[in-house]
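YM 10:42: AAA family ATPase sequence, as discussed on the call
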Amino acid sequence: MINKAEELRALRVRENCRIVSTPLTKHLRIRIEEFWEHAQDCLAGGGSRRRTLAIIGESGTGKSTAITHVLNSFDEFKPYKNEHNEKIIPMLSIEVEYSFTPKDFAIHVLRKLGADGSYSSNETVLYDELKNQLRASGTILLHIDEAQHLKKSGSSKAVMGLKDRFKSLLVIENWPLHLILSGVDDLSELFTGDQQMPNRSSVMRFDTLSSPADNKRVEEILADIAANCGLKVDKALTTPDFLGRLVKATGGGIGTLIEMVRAACYKALAKEHLAVKAKDFEFVYGRTSGSLPSENIITAKAWVDLDRSNALIDLVPKTVEPKRSRKKASK
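YM 10:58: structure's back
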């Protein structure tokens, strides 16, 4: 017999694996579909030079989850064996680690393609081999997540160097590789100033939500998750005041919002309640932010003036200026 704890665990796993549909996710699918069609046009001898799609948004906006879901939903992107029993990888998704240099990146991609990449090799040689392997593997889409990590500094030289590396991947002989670059707002540096990258790109933003403009969307997400958890939504959670608090507490990030609503619902279920209430959100925000009870955005009177990024400001050691020694008066 399945006990209550096991039932709740199964529900949490099921809900966490479910994609909450949003307008941004739907629009992203359309953009990826159009991008794939453009790649096919290029393979047939047509298309344009806009072979980079930049997807930019701050952490918590649901960007990475949406991209992973959409890319995994296309059967055309899945690896297969051709008539010569060779493995073809139409789409390759790579997450760039913070410590990666452009050379590390080339070696990492080469190894993902099943080729050798040696640190003793010259960087230019590695990128030449990478181009050959991308063409040989039939990789027409290369997704680079957290692409801004390859920009090791904000200097114009570093930015230009990374632009040149990306541009070099777009001019592979007889192979129209398409790049999907995703990352936080720092990534936008590659598309400002010099117009070589912008002239080869299209951009999609993952913006944050605001209140009251996006209250309806927030309410829809709240209702969707609660319903999938078998809960009702307490009436107090549908007021403009509470919806504004929820947006403030999550920084307007759809991903962070979904995470908080789920956590509040799980709390209500654990207490065997029939509806999710403000108390559940108060608990979740307090646990995740570490804020003082008086500064919990869900319940504080002056919540509009609070900043979730300063929830622990009271713990930051105060700078103590050294005491100045008094000079003795000259006799």
